[in-house]
Design a protein that fits this description.
heterodimer, A: 141 residues, two-stranded antiparallel ribbon, two-stranded antiparallel sheet, 4 strands, B: 532 residues, alpha+beta, 5-stranded mixed beta sheet, 23 strands, 34% helix, flat
Chain lengths: 141, 532
């Protein structure tokens, strides 16, 4: 088991897609809960369609649901996608969808979310309990 | 950018631990040098060694395979090195066509890293990717690393602290002032030598340097026979014996007897001790903020205190009641350059009276931010609270000249502490003051022993700063026809009762309705608003 390293507000986080596979969780269902009505309509005919997501840091490939790409493309310019009323954890997840899962630190996340504090964001996503695959970005084999 | 672990702050600040292998290497380093080795030297060698090992690992792994780049194409059974995965090596086991709505044709390769771990990677990828550089550039970027010496400068504190902790837990090593040696190789030292050292310092009536003690102990026939190892051994033995204390400044060891040192050199006088007090200077207006640095109390954080002037040849401070009472000066950032000091121990030096040339011992107590030894000098010169004291460096680095501006024969009306019934009060009384002073801070006290009872009561009852302000304010305001009192005067008066930072007094002033700001730092008090 990987050793737990206490992250700081400058530690980069990302969504680890292998966490979803290992946990047997349904990424599409979760993405649907984050999709706007337009995206949901666009995704109607894409059941079971996947694409090869490419990690911008390592070149790793993960085969994930195409709904990710639909939301990423469509909601990029939608100001309501990061509505201030959505829970902090959802806001963090949505930022990673928008930036195509480029690793960000709590300080950088705070700059985009503009609510709470980097420390609170760290406390929310940096504990031992992993929320929706959001983990410190520690590339390793 | 691709980073090795030694290039990351996360590694040095969080993951770095001194391993058994590191301890063995440090042991070898000390053994080979056969002299006490400075912690800095140990640390920098360790950092260089870790970087070198990583370099060797990278080089050997590059020999094993090609550097992985998303733009290249790879075949099954080809061996690759993955720089973004800590230079892990793996073998391509299969390939397939990739699918991405935006990227057209590319390949996905499956790589086996051994121990059952496989991962997919992009190949033949012609779009922008941070790993897509030509081979030469890729290696260059890998080699454009922060050098070990710069890494050490960046993380010096954390690296040294971890090495120090590891070596102190290891009985093979002994240390004095962050120099390390091997316990088994220390020079022999019999008990009788302690007694000789004790007697030599006693007779000298002052500290002695290690070399002088080595000669007194008869360990050498002539001074040129004294080695670094001998000095270290004597220092280590004396440091381990509770009779002896190092009272030298940074970089110089001077041995003194614990029984000859005043308690104030090691334990801060109760008068100077401050309970935890917090305030937020960002709440202060410009006048109050400026007063923080003007008062220059040692309890004021360095970034709010008066900055030291590098070219200053002298510095002047105003003494408050607690310092006046126990014969100390505050050790603030602007005062520090004028006193010999050590981060490890109190330092004994000589005060020189600037007018008479008389010398008397002083102590720099860096840990508790004060200089001790002026009690008799304050009394002899009848200096009041609020007196301007000037210090400057003597010709000898272990001498500090102290003086005041003489105004002999001057008779002024000054704020005097009086005891009325069961409480302290203040009255304007004519008094002969022989020095220049800060009119807003001056407080005369002809019976400080009686005043001490009020201080002890306030301490024992843990009276709040607000409570004390409400008590002293009416007493001070009646001395002024406008009934106003300056914030500095309130700070000075509250400190008669209790050691308090100026920021804490100011915080109370701005946060309570009963204190009403006037202009230029003056305040009035409305007792009817006390409980609002």
């Amino acid at each position: 088991m990987a050793k737990f390293v206490r992250p700081t507000i400058d530690t980069k986080f990302y969504i680890d897609f292998s966490w979803w596979q290992q946990k047997g969780q349904n990424l599409r269902a979760f993405l649907q809960s984050n999709a706007c009505p337009d995206c949901q309509r666009l995704a109607e005919d894409t059941q079971d369609q996947t694409f090869d997501w490419i990690n911008p840091e390592t070149g790793e490939v993960h085969e994930i649901d195409v709904l990710w790409h639909i939301i990423h493309t469509h909601c990029k310019h939608d100001p309501n996608f990061l509505d201030s009323r959505i829970p902090l954890t959802s806001a963090v997840f949505r930022i990673f969808i928008l930036n195509d899962n480029t690793p960000l630190s709590p300080v950088e996340l705070h700059e985009q979310i503009r609510k709470k504090s980097p420390e609170l964001i760290l406390k929310t996503i940096g504990g031992r309990q992993i929320y929706k695959g959001i983990k410190p970005f520690v590339p390793a084999v | 950018m691709i980073q090795r672990k030694t290039q990351t702050s996360e590694y040095w600040q969080q993951q770095f631990k001194v391993s058994h292998k590191d301890i063995e290497n440090i042991y070898q380093q000390v053994l080979e040098q056969n002299r006490p080795v400075d912690l800095n030297d140990i640390a920098i060698v360790l950092v260089r060694r870790q970087c070198n090992e990583e370099e060797l690992q990278v080089r050997s792994e590059f020999q094993d395979g090609k550097l992985y780049q998303p733009s290249n194409s790879y075949n099954v059974d080809e061996k690759l090195v993955f720089p973004a995965l800590n230079f892990a090596t793996g073998t391509v086991t299969q390939t397939r066509s990739g699918q991405h709505p935006d990227f057209g044709n590319f390949t996905v390769i499956t790589v086996n890293f051994g121990n059952g771990s496989t991962k997919d990677f992009v190949a033949n990828f012609t779009h922008e990717h941070r790993l897509n550089t030509d081979q030469e550039q890729g290696l260059a970027s890998l080699q454009g690393l922060v050098p070990p010496d710069e890494i050490y400068q960046e993380y010096q504190d954390v690296i040294c602290n971890r090495i120090r902790a590891a070596l102190e837990a290891h009985s093979d090593f002994v240390s004095v002032n962050d120099k390390y040696f091997l316990a088994d190789l220390l020079t022999e030292f019999h008990e009788g030598l302690f007694n000789i050292a004790d007697a030599a310092i006693d007779i000298n009536k002052g500290p002695l340097a290690t070399d002088a003690l080595v000669e007194q102990m008869g360990l050498v026939e002539s001074p040129d026979q004294i080695t670094d190892l001998m000095r270290f051994s004597v220092n280590y033995r004396l440091d381990s014996d509770e009779r002896f204390e190092d009272v030298g400044p940074e970089g110089q060891v001077l041995w003194y007897l614990e029984r000859m040192a005043p308690p104030e050199a090691y334990y801060p006088p109760r008068r100077l001790q401050m309970r935890r007090q917090e305030y937020d200077a960002s709440d202060f207006d410009a006048d109050l903020f400026a007063l923080l640095s003007e008062i220059d109390d040692e309890a004021t954080p360095a970034d709010e205190a008066e900055l030291p002037d590098e070219n200053a040849r002298r510095v002047t401070v105003v003494i408050n009641y607690p310092h006046w009472r126990v014969g100390t000066l505050p050790l603030t950032p602007k005062m520090l350059p004028f006193f010999p000091k050590s981060y490890h121990n109190p330092v004994r030096f000589q005060f020189v009276d600037g007018r008479t040339g008389e010398k008397f011992p002083g102590w720099t107590v860096f840990d508790h931010k004060y200089v001790f030894g002026l009690d008799d000098w304050y009394k002899k010169n009848k200096l009041p609270v609020g007196a301007y004291i000037t210090v400057r460096s003597g010709k000898d680095p272990m001498e500090v000249i102290v003086e005041f501006q003489n105004t002999r024969g001057q008779r002024d009306w000054v704020r005097m502490v009086t005891i009325t019934g069961n409480r302290l009060s203040f009255q304007m009384t004519p008094a002969a003051i022989g020095c220049k002073y800060d009119e807003l801070m001056i407080i005369g006290d002809t019976s400080p022993e009686s005043t001490d009872k009020f201080w002890l009561t306030a301490e024992d009852r843990n009276r709040s700063v607000f409570d004390l302000l409400c008590e002293v304010f009416p007493e001070l305001s009646k001395l002024n026809p406008q009934s106003t009192v300056h914030a500095k005067t309130l700070y000075s008066a509250v400190n008669v009762y209790r050691r308090t930072a100026p920021g804490v007094v100011f915080q109370e002033l701005i946060s309570r309705q009963c204190f009403i700001p006037m202009n230029h730092g003056y305040w009035t008090y409305d007792p009817s608003l006390r409980d609002k």
